[in-house]
Design a protein that fits this description.
Layout: H1 3-15, H2 20-28, H3 30-49, H4 52-55, H5 61-80, H6 85-101, H7 105-127, H8 134-199, H9 213-355, H10 360-479, H11 492-504
Protein name: Globin-coupled sensor protein
Keywords: Chemotaxis, Transducer
Domain Methyl-accepting transducer: 239-468
Length: 505
Amino acid sequence: MSVEADKNLTERLAFLEIDQKTCKTLNSLRPTLGELLGGVLDKFYAKVASTPQISGFFNGKPHMAAAKNAQMQHWDKVSKGTFDPDYVKGVTAIGKAHARIGLEPRWYIGGYSMLMTELVAGMLVKHWPFPFGKQHATALGEKLGALIKASMLDMDYSISVYLDALEDRRKQLEAERLQFEADQRLAMEHLSRGLEALARGDFESRMETDLPDNFKQMALDYNETVVRLNASFASIRRASEEILDGTETIAKASDELAMRTAKQAAGIQESSTALQQLSVSVGQTASNAERASLAVHDTQQQARSSGDVVSRAVDAMAEIEKSSTEISKIIGVIDEIAFQTNLLALNAGVEAARAGDAGKGFAVVAQEVRQLAQRSADAAKEIKRLISQSTNQVNEGVGLVSNTGAALGDMISRIDTIHAIVSEIATAAKDQATGLKEVNQATISMDTLTHQNSTMVEQTSAETRRLRSEVESLVKLLGQLNTRSGEGDMPAGAERRGTASRKAA
């Protein structure tokens, strides 16, 4: 034990008034404490097991049993009254263990309180009742005082070691903090110089890697980042130049497209106007065709009516022809009667002549009858001639009417054909007018879309020119950076690490 530790122990023993007499008194309590400690520690560890805040420091019952055995050995040494370097070493180990596991002093102060309560109660039970007399009371007080002093010394060392351990840890952390701050200042100085170089656009500068261990990886990461930025900005510069060329091409193409779109819009507008006029004309044609179809239909109906009239006229003339034939037959009969009457009158005249004067009157009558018969025959012949002439005329009229009926039938057939054709023309013209109207609407829509496209092309052309101006500014800005033009500047390990980090993400 060091001189300082020996001095501390001597001071503690003196302040607590633990002398040889106290040590002997403790030694005299050894049997009693040996009897009491087993039950007291059982009760104590049962309390520990039921307290969640401290039961977690033990890994089950075997661990508690080992701790109880260590406590028995420690209190056996305390009861011997041998407060020597071994005692200090043991109690120091206990205090450091408490500090290491984070057991706060409040828990083992409470534990000491419980142990002392049980031990004092046990001792009183052991030594009560005692004979009246000051000597026995004084002896019991000395025993209890010795036990309490030893317990307080034990608690003092445990708490002091715990606090010393905390102080050592604090000093260690403070030293580590100061060292870290010094290392951090050094690293920040190097990082600041690197960032200043980056602010100047110098991507060729690198950060020194001869730094404390905590910041070496930072320097490596910084340098790798600069290498990546160098390669990235070089690629961006090349891409910007290519974009600049592309935007120039796009601008020319956009201007040309705008001109073509404008011409197309003008052409479509002219086509739309022509289609509108054609649509109006076709609409009028469809209307005229529809009116012509109606007129042809009316003519068709009138022709059919005329055909019916001619048909009835043919039938009437046929009846007239039939009647004329019948009349001719009747006239023939009359003519035959007149002929027979004439023969009879002739015979009567011959007989009257033979009769002489007696037959003169009869001869006159016969002559009159003969004349009447002759006139009847002449009239019958004339009627027959007229009827024959009428029949011929009727036949001729029937032929003419038949021809007229045939002509009307042919005309009706042609009118039907014309009506069908005119109807088809009217339908086709109507469909054509509808189709032209739809085409006209589509052309108007196309004209609108073409004008919109023309506007969009003009906007695209303007945006392309603006983009080209922005890219030119970007290229000028990138030209101020000190970079190498090559993607091979990136270290091989950097690409692999980047790929691995992306896979991990």
